[in-house]
Amino acid sequence: MPPALSRSRQLFVLLATASVALSACSGDKPKDQAAGGTTAPAQAGGVALTGAGATFPNPIYTKWFDTYGKATGVRINYQSIGSGGGIRQFTEGTVDFGATDGPMSTEQMAAVKNDVLHVPTVLGADVLTYNLPAIGSSKLVLDGDAIAGIFLGRITKWNDPKLAGLNPGLKLPNSDIIVVHRSDGSGTSFIFTDYLSKVSPEWKAKVGAATSVNWPIGLGGKGNEGVTQQVKQTEGAIGYVELIYAASNGLPFANIKNAAGKAVTPNLASVTAAAQSANFTPDTDFRVSITNPPGADAYPIASFTWLLIKPSNPDPVKAKQMKDFINWMLSPEAQRMAADLQYAPLPVPLIELIQKRVGT
Hints:
The structure is a single chain. The protein is an alpha/beta fold. It folds into two domains: 7-124 and 274-288 and 302-359, 3-Layer(aba) Sandwich (D-Maltodextrin-Binding Protein, domain 2); 126-270, D-Maltodextrin-Binding Protein, domain 2, CATH 3.40.190. The protein is 40% helix and 16% strand. An eight-stranded mixed β-sheet has the order 2-1-3-11-4-8-6-7. It has a three-stranded mixed β-sheet with strand order 5-9-10. Strand 9 and strand 10 (263-264) form a beta hairpin. It is elongated, with a radius of gyration of 20 Å. It starts with 6 loop residues before the first helix and ends with a helix.
């Protein structure tokens, strides 16, 4: 089982979980003091920024927006509704910024006349979390082929020979595997399906990579929180969530064999190692995939997550507030908060490149 999180980290995840539950009741359009938003004290001039999108980074965004608001008086309301919703609302112009774990496609960018910049914020890991009391505290090992087989419905029993071969000496039960996946448009799903499309030709041909796909089998859960709860309540279940959601709920997560054939535990070090494969040119738009990277120590299902901002924001006040927040977000203080919540901080060279781009 994963080590217990600190009280502060548990609190932030509980706050994030509660906010999504409320936002599901209030709809998905951010409003001042909106249910599901993170709210800081209003600035004297009443300036507020609104955003919506990914649940993957919601725990760190909750912390950042609250801390920044208390320090500056700038209120930032954020609804954790999934990357698909974040891209949609950014495209419709109903929010000041979007948030996504799956970068916008060329077609989606064309819909906003390419007036969008993807700003990396942190790195995180999709983990395969499971509810399998029969193996106790033993750690499950999976590889890309096994994961694809499970989510395609080819591997249906926990004691399947493929799984037994990856876990010698582990007494796996002769019980059904219950697959859990996201029901909403999700950057967490994009990361997961992007990885599977790289390691499984069958997955790529039949399902592909996107924020929303036609799942061959399984139960759906809304948000990382919904998948986490489905797995937690269903013996024999397996699902994919961002690392902190599994860890804060006391759920185990598998070691995954990477491109080098090494079974790697998802943690800050292995996610940081995955980022070493990213190559950013001076004119980059920051859209890059780091799933299934090379390197013996790299965790294979890792990703950046991004804010979506408008380079030509027509509101000069909000444009400055957005720029000021991003510069604060890139500070050592803010990036240290990310590590406390099991997100890998951005590499320093990347931070410097973002600062240059935002400065223009």
